[in-house]
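re: ur question from yesterday

yeah so i grabbed the chain u mentioned. its 382 aa long if i counted rite. heres the sequnce exactly as i have it in my notes:
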Amino acid sequence: MVVTPWRVEGKIDYEKLIRQFGTQPLSEEILGKFRRYAGELHYQLRRRIFFSHRDLDWVFTKYDEGEKFVLYTGRGPSGPVHLGHIVPWVFTKHLQDVFQAKLYFQLTDDEKYLYHEEYSLEFTTSTAYDNALDLIALGFKPELTRIIVDVVHIDALYHLAIKVAKHITSSTIKAVFGLKDSDNIGLTFFPAVQAVPCFLESVVQGRNVPCLIPAAIDQDPYWRVTRDVAPRLGFYKPAQIHSRFMPGLGRGGKMSASQPETCVFLIDPPREAEKKIMNAFTGGQPTAEEQRRLGGNPEICSIYQYYAFLFEEDDGKLREIWENCQNGAILCGDCKLRLAERVARFLEKHQEHREKLRDAIEEFLFSEEERKLIWSKGLPKP
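ran it thru and got these structure tokens back, copy pasting raw so excuse formatting
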């Protein structure tokens, strides 16, 4: 098992990751607070798709004391967005709706340019804007959402980034991220840039504001470094809630753009997505007769995981899918077809929203006035 911000390989042992990263499993007490705030648990919490946290209990204590929190998550724009990428975005939107929380969404065009030798900066920046369309098409509120494109909005980030960087040693970055002497120095500096949105709202408001980061657990190393630095700069430590990885359509492993036949991109033509799903790996038997007699194994089935992660919010109906598979009441081809139809409808609707919002993206980006405000507040008075 390998889990880093740049590589996720092998069969993932989430309990081992909790021990290895030093996080905490979501407790019944925390889930009870979610239930109290939202009325009911989001399906991703009920199914423990979000399973781990740092200081979420502290964030809720502050919230109960009258301190609202800000949300922060993001995306490395290396290509089209796929369904696995939006798992934490769906939950982040739920948090924004329930708590009326402001979201900072960082698109790290700089990181992807630095990490991938073959990418130009023009490519990663243009991809960032394209990826942003997929975010806003999910229904985030423009008045509560600020999208950061690092290279474009660096004037609002740099004064904080160098303050963060001053408190991080090269040896720390090498140890945490596994960087080598042959890696470029931009990768050494980048964690300071990714830390900045944790503190932006505190700068804007002129007081400490709690920050909660919903993200997949492979991003946790960044926040471990940020949490070490935060008190030295007078800020709260950012809190996190971690998601599992959505599997691909192949045999094992997370969904990965490097294996395009095993993942559904949000810009895929619906018919193409349907074909991918119909060719997916399942836990079914070799023949229809054996499937009816012996049943299938939904535990290893990519189709079942698609339902669980994104495409069936009703727990009763999800349980029915599981039981029908196990007792042979449904054949894999029929189950695939039902999912393919749902995914196709989702893509059609999403792509329609995406195009309608193309001219509205400026509403979500930092305005020049906002950037000047952040910049001016971050600098010492002459």
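noticed a couple things. Strands lie at 2-3, 8-9, 24-25, 50-54, 70-75, 103-107, 145-149, 211-216, 239-243. also Residues 8 and 48 are 19 Å apart (CA to CA).
anyway ttyl
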